[in-house]
Amino acid sequence: MGTQSMDPRKLNSTPIPFFLLCSLLSLAASHEHHPLDPLTPLEQIQVQTIVKNSYPNVTFHYVGLDEPEKAAVLSWLSSSDHSNQIPDRRAFVIARDHSESHEIVVSLAEKRVVSDNVYDGYGYPVITFEEQRAATQLPLTYAPFLASIAKRGLMLDQVFCGSFTVGWYGDQESRRVVRLMCYYINGTINFYMRPIEGITFIVDLEEMKIIGYRDRVIVPVPKADGTDYRESVQKSTFDNRLKSITMLQPDGPSFTIEGHTVRWANWEFHLAFNMRSGPIISLASIYDHEENKHRRVMYRGFISELFVPYMDLTEEWYYRTFLDAGEFGFGQSAVPLQPLRDCPENAVFLDGYFATQDGTPAKISNVFCLFERYAGDIMWRHTEGALPGDLVTEVRQDVSLVLRMVSTVANYDYVIDWEFKQTGTIKVTAGLTGLLAVRGSFYTHKDQIMEEEYGTLLAENILGPNHDHFISFHLDLDIDGEPNSLVKAKLQRARVTDGRSRRKSYWKVANETAKRESDAKIHLGSGATEILVTNPNKKTKVGNDIGYRLIPRTVASRLLANDDYPQRRAAFTKYNVWVTPYNKSEKMGRRALC
Ligand SMILES: *[C@@H]1O[C@H](CO)[C@@H](O)[C@H](O)[C@H]1NC(C)=O
Ligand SMILES: *[C@@H]1O[C@H](CO)[C@@H](O)[C@H](O)[C@H]1NC(C)=O
Ligand SMILES: *[C@@H]1O[C@H](CO)[C@@H](O)[C@H](O)[C@H]1NC(C)=O
Ligand SMILES: *[C@@H]1O[C@H](CO)[C@@H](O)[C@H](O)[C@H]1NC(C)=O
Ligand SMILES: [Cu+2]
To answer: Which residue range or ranges hold the Copper amine oxidase N2-terminal domain (predicted)?
Structure first.
């Protein structure tokens, strides 16, 4: 996890109801919605029809629920008769029409476009799979490229091209373009290890044609030997002698799924799939058996952006400063999870839908899995040896609930886990696997390298350029209701100068509550500061504040200069934590591109 961001909110606390009305696999339009349910395929088709009525030649780049204002959702939750108060279902659409980006809101109840904003900023919407497919076919009939391939002695039918977003370098105006990079498959499945380096294409996506081509230098294509990563081919590398392991729950799982609401142990939350972000967790709450009520923890949590800048300044690489959500669609890049491999035997799978370029819903089967994890760990234990008689030992198993999605953005596979623990912890993990993006090189040994190469020689003719992956989470915490505060608890050394102890020092905690947004831009990892989100209006029985701690794992910090263009674009990486008041219109994803 690179950076996190959070929004405190300003609304009233309400109990969470026990019943929610839509059924898991029902696609029927007739069922009751939870206000945060994702658009059903039928609703997506309605949106497609309504938008195409107004804009016949439109292409769809994003279709999702236009989430109701938080106040409306909370008021729906607290009302006794949900059916009468459900906020109007609306869709938010980002579309291209006549070379303009439109941000369109569609009312499903009124069956019409209720607003349309033509976005005139620098950015462009997510590129569609159809555009990527069309762009990557262009080289195969492009005469200068065919000559370059022949010159290198390669076979065209073994060439495969990928498309890459180009970043931004201060231009006042830019065309909607991608660059292409081609690879040689012949003899491997892992073509990412065989770049045909030295060649760059620029493709205009509006005209869908090559507008720039340069064959700068012939670099050897790395050998195919040893690049095929499949287990069946790599027998010697992996030890297949382990006996099988399974996770058995003879009585079935302990969680239930009703509509989009998941209940497990004391936890309850709403789960939706989104084509930009992947999983969106909403209204997570914990049932308190002493107070006999649900206590809110998080209104909404999701990945808002991923920033992946490479540090390689060669002509074919300098532009690689990807925004994996805003440019490629982190949700739509999700892949069907493989039972027994991606998720254990006791997992339950759920599907998700995204909009294709013409607005038709496309299903991603098994986009999520939910399972109870027990890895043999201890949640809590104690052995009491001081009492007379036998030792008293109690051990509780660390069983948790995991929601998983895997998003494969070209060479990388991101494994996103939201884990709910019985202790009340929510743990979010981003695992990176798959393949490295590598650069072809003349070098076959480290000792040959005399100039700056921006990375590490990994194998003969293969360099791994230095790069980052920053993942930004939107966390709208609602700890025990409203309002919440951000508290920086600073551990400080105190000197003993008054002779009250034989000790010379100790540490104590001084806390600081953020009063404005500028107090809440935080660099983690420097100094002993803990980040707390508290509810100043709620106290424990002994008067302490109620709150959660934000616990970072490894802390990433950016090293790009403030005036460098990728850093200006991904300015959210400047601090690890930002806290701003709730404002629906300022959420990422409401922009054509950030
Ligand atoms: C849509 O595209 C078709 C075919 O390219 C064209 O004939 C038609 O005029 C376009 N419609 C609009 C509203 O631009
Ligand atoms: C393609 O792969 C085959 C089998 O590995 C090899 O014999 C052949 O030389 C390769 N051809 C080219 C042009 O790379
Ligand atoms: C922060 O300090 C104030 C003043 O000492 C105290 O009232 C408050 O409870 C503290 N909050 C936390 C979260 O420690
Ligand atoms: C929400 O954000 C928008 C865009 O920045 C701004 O125009 C509006 O005033 C904000 N609303 C509130 C209540 O702060
Ligand atoms: Cu990487």
So the answer is: 34-117
**Alpha-carbon Rg of the chain, whole angstroms?**
26
Instruction: Identify whether the C-beta of residue 288 lies closer than 8 Å to the C-beta of residue 295.
Output: yes
- Helix (H) or strand (E) segment spanning residue 74: helix 70-78
Q: Which pLDDT belongs to residue 221?
A: 97
Q: Which one from 124, 183, 192, 412 is the annotated catalytic residue?
A: 412
Mutation test residue for ligand 3: of 545, 546, 548, the one with most atoms within 8 Å of CB? 545
Active site (annotated) includes residue 251: no
What is 129-228's CATH number, 3.40.190.10, 1.10.150.120, 3.30.497.10, 3.10.450.40?
Answer: 3.10.450.40
277 three-state secondary structure: coil
225-247 pLDDT, tens digit per residue, is 989 988 888 766 566 678 888 88
pLDDT category, 581, cuts 50, 70, 90?
A: confident
CA angle 192, 196, 197 (to 5 degrees): 105
Q: Which residues have CB under 8 Å from 150's CB, separation 6+? A: none
Q: What residue owns the CA closest to ligand 1's atom 14?
A: 57
Tell me the three state secondary structure of residue 140.
helix
User: Residue 142 has which token pair?
Assistant: 């492009």
Report whether residue 313 contacts ligand 2, using a CB cutoff of 6 Å: no
pLDDT of residue 247: 86
Q: What is the mean pLDDT of the chain?
A: 90
pLDDT, tens digit (0-9, with 9 covering 90-100), for 488-537: 999 999 999 999 999 999 999 999 999 999 999 999 887 778 999 999 99
CATH domain 2-17+24-30+253-373+395-430+471-555+557-586 topology = Beta-galactosidase; Chain A, domain 5 (2.70.98)
- Chain segment 313-368, per-residue pLDDT in tens: 999 999 999 999 999 999 999 999 999 999 999 999 999 999 999 999 999 999 99
Structure-token pair, residue 321: 């400063």
CA distances from 250 to 2, 215, 346, 349 (A): 39, 61, 9, 18
pLDDT at site 81:
65
The predicted-structure confidence for 80-133, as pLDDT tens digits, reads as follows: 666 657 788 999 999 999 999 999 999 999 999 999 999 988 889 999 999 999
**Spatial separation of the C-alpha atoms in residues 136 and 160, rounded to whole Å:** 8
Nearest CA to ligand 4 atom 1: 583
Ligand 3 pocket (Cβ < 6 Å) reads 487, 489, 511, 532, 534, 545, 547
Active site residue 324: yes
- The three-state secondary structure class of 447 is helix
Tell me: cis bond preceding 56? Omega within 30 of 0 counts: no
What is the residue with the minimal CA distance to atom 10 of ligand 4?
583
| Structure tokens that stand for 333 in this block | 């890049």
The two tokens of residue 533 are: 């989100």
For residue 151, count other CB atoms closer than 10 A to its CB: 10
